[in-house]
Known about the structure:
Blueprint: H1 32-37, H2 41-53, H3 74-95, H4 97-127
Helix pairs in contact: 3-4
GO biological process, one term: mitochondrial electron transport, NADH to ubiquinone
Transmembrane segments: 106-124
InterPro entries: NADH_DH_b-subcmplx_su6
Amino acid sequence: MAPPKYAGPGEAVESATSGVKPISIGGRLIHERERLSGMNDAERAWRKQWLKDQTLTPREPLFIPKDSPDLLNPIRKFYRWPLDQVFFKLLQPMIGKYPAQVGRFYVGRGLMGLWGIYLTIYYFKYQGN
């Protein structure tokens, strides 16, 4: 593999890592000869566990509903709150979980699109020269 090319100002980087040197997480154990020659039992157990940890189970990634509100930043929580209350507190018991999620998605996108159209109209009506 060729060394990464570092771009100057205005130059494009032609690297899969965008100019950052890639690192190997396997260390010296990626080479079979090195793995077999100098490993003790503790290193073999570590290597076996590391390989086992690299395989994902069919249930991953795991979604934990209790933690999902903590994953949103405060600004996003603020602007999502009104529609979340309408769709998930009021309408979900009547129409079900999936229709409430779909309705929340499309109504939210529709309102953002409408808001964008209004801002564009306002700009061209009052600010555009």
